[in-house]
Amino acid sequence: ATLSAVVKEHNTSAFDGKEAALLVDELRNNFNTGRTKSYQWRISQLQNISRMLDEKEKCITEALNQDLSKPELEAFLAEISNTKSSCTLAIKELKNWMAPETVETSVTTFPSSAQIVSEPLGVVLVISAWNFPFLLSVEPVIGAISAGNAVVLKPSEIAPATSALLAKLFSEYLDKTTIRVIEGGVPETTALLDQKWDKIFFTGGARVAGIIMAAAARNLTPVVLELGGKCPALVDSDVNLQVAARRIIAGKWACNNGQACIGVDYVITTKDFSLKLIDALKTELKTFFGETPLESKDLSRIVNSFHFKRLESMLKENGVANKIVHGGQTIEEKLKISPTIVVDVPEASSIMQEEIFGPLLPIVTVEKIEDGFQVIRSKPKPLAAYLFTNNKELQEQFVQSVSAGGISINDTVLHVTVKDLPFGGVGESGIGAYHGKFSYETFSHKKGVLYRSFSGDADLRYPPYTQKKKMV
Ligand code: NAD
After folding, report:
1. Would you say 256 and 129 are in contact if contact means Cβ atoms under 8 Å apart?
2. Contact 233/368 with Cβ under 8 angstroms?
3. What's the complex ipTM?
4. Measuring CA to CA, how many Å separate 161 from each of 129, 139, 203, 281?
5. Atom of ligand 1 nearest to the CA of 424
6. Cα of 278 to ligand 1 centre, how many Å?
7. Which parts of the sequence belong to the Aldehyde dehydrogenase domain (predicted)?
8. Is 60:75 a contact under the CB 8 Å cutoff?
């Protein structure tokens, strides 16, 4: 089937509260058979995902291009290859992750042994966002399957081609009795949220996260909230300027054209250094996207006209447009905005108060680089924070005193690819973390188990509680 036929077919089905209840019942019954708990079931589903990635790479890239004009290589590197390496890691490590961990016991329980045993949570819901619509859907599902859960995925309706493709591919490659995709927007998600889940894993914005948490609270359902925020890049003058500029561009415009949760939201640098940094950014932007970036095939478009208008209005507000030092061109019909840099805009403007999530880059100048810490601290805790400097003391100070979901020093975004690092927010940028083993743990309960025999039955713990027993 062509991609447009797949999109059409999958967008026509209605889904309400009654169907949501039936779905969860069915999955819970299937989970209760114990099928998803076996190593064999988990590994076979993971292998199927791996095969799906190999066989359907072209369709996935096409869907991402349709939804976001995502350049083919960016789609491959950021979405397909990252998902593939998570899947490969889970296949390789699954036995180790599942193995009970033996811990020491105390004299109180002597003789005994104790273990931490992982168990699946049950039936879990994954709700994902539109900006990396494939990766953000499949990566948590890999965690849910590894941990032995039944899972429902609700992809974002704002990336309809990828959503439809996920529905089709999951039904083709995975166990339908325990793994399902439900497509849709607010009504369908609301119907799902009315059900009782064993965990809800949500990727999206803070406003909707509040709705998710309130729905989860009704059943005391635990949540993971993978949110966003304003991710700063603090740039010192003691840097390799060209490399720093290239890496800032990679973490802004070459990252879904700024529509990324860990993309650079704004830059802070010193007044003295700012002109050099802006020049370097302009030079490298030309090298990457040419003289007419609106025509570049290497820049994603803005996802839809709502977000296009939102970004345009950020530039129109408070005289921000007068502060443009680079870019500022737009083509509304094509939803294109060129890489745009503004300097020292009023702090009260939306561009400095809200997550930008697009190709606009404000630069804030400060007298001394240390003043940048106060700028970062004045805003809610971001999902990521970046520092560029050779100065080791400054690096240490940044790591110790900047609270953020994660940090890259002298780079942007790449910490997300290190599978032994947890990925998640802190404060307003989220709750919980995943990736690699953290994904497995996020979807598992760690059960403490004490093994005893009938020996060592000391009188001490039993009444009558005599003074003599207290002395022992
Ligand atoms: P969003 O919060 O608008 O939507 C996320 C999901 O919630 C979608 O599946 C959507 O259908 C659903 N939804 C929307 N409104 C709802 C409602 N009223 N009730 C129930 N469900 C609803 O987020 P988005 O626009 O898709 O994504 C952008 C946001 O996500 C940004 O803030 C970004 O920083 C964040 N994000 C975070 C990560 C991360 O890994 N931490 C990754 C990507 C994006």
Report:
1. no
2. no
3. 0.98
4. 13, 18, 18, 34
5. 41
6. 32
7. 16-447
8. yes
